[in-house]
């Protein structure tokens, strides 16, 4: 790749260009030592001054599969003057090559490679011949959509205060001024959202609190109950997926039920130790939303009880609420 780029940039006079935009799928890794590799080579070199004018970009088809920080650093959306370009070559040709698939699939490997090379060469030639016309038509399309874009931007901009606008403009100017030297300056475009605490984090906090108070076991018992409920839901989903199960699938479902029963029995034993004054068999539970005997077995958590809670479970209810918030945060992060 070093050879290909340096040789491509050596054709023609690039001394007067302000910058060059180069899109490559893994530029976030490739650009790190690009200059050092070329300078260390006896056979490669940049055109004079060009090494400090390269905007390394990642195509919009690939950048969303990278780390979150790659988006503001390398997406063409944030490179002034580039426009929102795909920066892709091969992937954009797939739709043009698809009609040839029915013929290519019956060819030998060598014949197929030869045919694909011929098709790509033809596409590349047509691209070069039509390049000027395509640029003009793209410019006309951009002008047509510019008014609508400006209108929508003005609506958004009108909600911003002068103080905040001035601050953002200064940050933007600084980021773009430093981008060629340090691409991390573009991180100001990243969303700085504080993530809500996960279930496991809340579990640790509650367990530490219990250790300080000398009353351990409640949080672990509640988390086990939540895990049992999640396991009941997974079992229900597995049964719905395999409505006519094979013998192997029946065995897997039976094993899931076995584990569920064992875990539920262990939970009930722990409940008797934590709440010796309570008779869980006499408590009234909410109706389960599932209809299998094992899946419908009530989990004796405070949230599953009807009516007023017994005094012994009021502290457990407060802790369960915190844990449920963590469970919801995990679910939202997984969307």
Describe this protein's structure:
The protein is mostly helical and 335 residues long. The protein has helices spanning 2-9, 27-30, 34-40, 60-63, 70-74, 94-97, 101-104, 109-129, 131-157, 162-178, 199-213, 218-241, 247-274, 314-333; strands at 20-23, 54-57. The two termini are 37 Å apart. 12% of the residues are buried.
Q: Can you describe this structure in just a few lines?
A:
By secondary structure, the chain is mainly α.
**Uncertain residue ranges:** none
How many E-type strands? 2
Strand order of the largest sheet: 1-2
* Mean pLDDT across every amino acid position: 87
SSE run:
HEHHEHHHHHHHHHHH
Radius of gyration, in Å, reads 31 Å
Helix and strand composition category = mainly alpha
Number of helices: 14
In one word, what is the shape?
A: elongated
Report how far apart the termini are: 37 Å
Q: Strand fraction band?
A: under 5%
Characterize the main sheet: 2 strands, parallel
Helix content: 55-70%
InterPro entries: KDZ
